[in-house]
Every structure is written in structure tokens, then in C-alpha cells.
Amino acid sequence: IRSEDPLSYANFGELIDIITFNWDDFSDTIRSKKSMESVVSQFSKIRNVIAHSCELEEDDIFRLKLLIKDWFRILS
Predict the structure, then answer these.
(1) Torsion sign, CA atoms 63, 34, 50, 5
(2) H, E, C per residue of the chain
(3) Residues 4-18: tens digit of each pLDDT
């Protein structure tokens, strides 16, 4: 079943724009706008590998785990 929520179809670049544009709503949850942009951009690269039905290499899996840790570090 397809979602009716347009946010369900936002890509990582659009999510960065949404968070940046609405920073006042996110600033109490995310410590740094610059860090958020960096981490989400890197998630986008890994997502592209997965979305194109490619297998993640061992380095990609390690990078993904680090990105998840980075994401939780920037959350307040």
C-alpha cells in the first residue's frame, strides 16, 4: 500500500532541506546542523548502493555502522 504522506517519498537531500528550513523545530533534538548535513549525506551514498540492488561490501557495512553511531551522537 502506497503512503499518502509526501514525507514517505522524500530522499535524503530533501530531508536535509526540510530539516534545515525548519531548523527551529529540530534544533532541540539535533545538536548541529552541519553534522546533520554531513551524516545524512553519507547515508544517502549507502542508500544508493542498497537501492540499486547491490550488495554492501564489508567496508560499506562498517561505514553504515559508524554513521548510525554518528547519527545518535548528534541527537540531543
Answers:
(1) positive
(2) CCCCCHHHHCCHHHHHHHHHHCHHHHCCCECCHHHHHHHHHHHHHHHHHHHCCCCCCHHHHHHHHHHHHHHHHHEC
(3) 999 999 999 999 999
